[in-house]
Amino acid sequence: MSPRLSVATPVVTMFPKASGDWEKDASIEELTRIAEAADRLGYHHLTCSEHIALPAAESDRRGVRYWDPLATFGYLAARTRQIRLATNVLVLGYHHPLEIAKRYGTLDKVSGGRLILGVGVGSLKEEFDLIGAPFDDRGPRGDDALKALRASLSVPEPAYRGEFYAFDGMTVDPCAVQERVPIWVGGRTLRSLRRAVTLADGWAPFSVGLRQARDWLGRFELRPGFEVILPPAAPLDPITEPERTRDAVAEAGAHGATIVPAVFRHTSLQHYLDNLQALAELHEPGGAA
């Protein structure tokens, strides 16, 4: 089966040497046009990541722009109908699990059950220090947070007792409307995949090559429905290189991807929209990768 396609959302995050110049001054209107087009064309999900504040020394590696996912998705939920909204990723250590359950459970309700909760344990110590969050035990703390989230996301009166988090006798209203909100784990290590397989519903790594991903995936028995989100080995060009694009999506699928993010080189909003259209047409029956 061919992998589905998603949108590695431009504008909301700008990485050095990877973003188009037009994104620098783009507004919510440009972003909305992308979301509406992706929704109409059948893309699986949009992404938006989280950072509170980044050290200037990190700007060349991580970029400096990160739109807040809750505000961004709250707006886009009203302008779309079926495309899912994936945090990619929230840093677990920055929030109490019930804070996530309330804020993003509300988003799930607002969007009609379209939330995908992508999470990670984080790696930027300066940001942890800035908000007074513990850093050294972020791995086991994140594991406990994942268990607490699974116990609380869709439950108006959640109860949980773990190593770091414990709660009961509290009401969270509204909560998520999906019976089981998909939780994906991001990261770039084998440990992140183990965490995903053990505690979540999918793995959305970054900076992990396709061969490495396939090797790691081969070490686990993945249950049915487990999602693996792997970008293509290089940016796609479905307009001028349709065959190479088709092969690149198929290659990601052969290495374990169930969903392939659309990553393009683009020179304008219209060029980006044209790429979305061309890739969707390649993926239609009779032209599917």
Automatic annotation (TrEMBL):
Gene Ontology MF terms: alkanesulfonate monooxygenase activity
Sequence ranges assigned to domain Luciferase-like in this UniProt record: 19-220
One record GO biological process: alkanesulfonate catabolic process
Top-level taxonomic group: Bacteria
Keyword Flavoprotein part of the UniProt annotation: yes
Alphabetized UniProt keyword annotations: Flavoprotein, FMN, Monooxygenase, Oxidoreductase
Keyword Cell inner membrane: no
Gene3D superfamilies: Luciferase-like domain
Protein's name according to its UniProt entry: LLM class F420-dependent oxidoreductase
Annotated organism of origin: Mycobacterium scrofulaceum
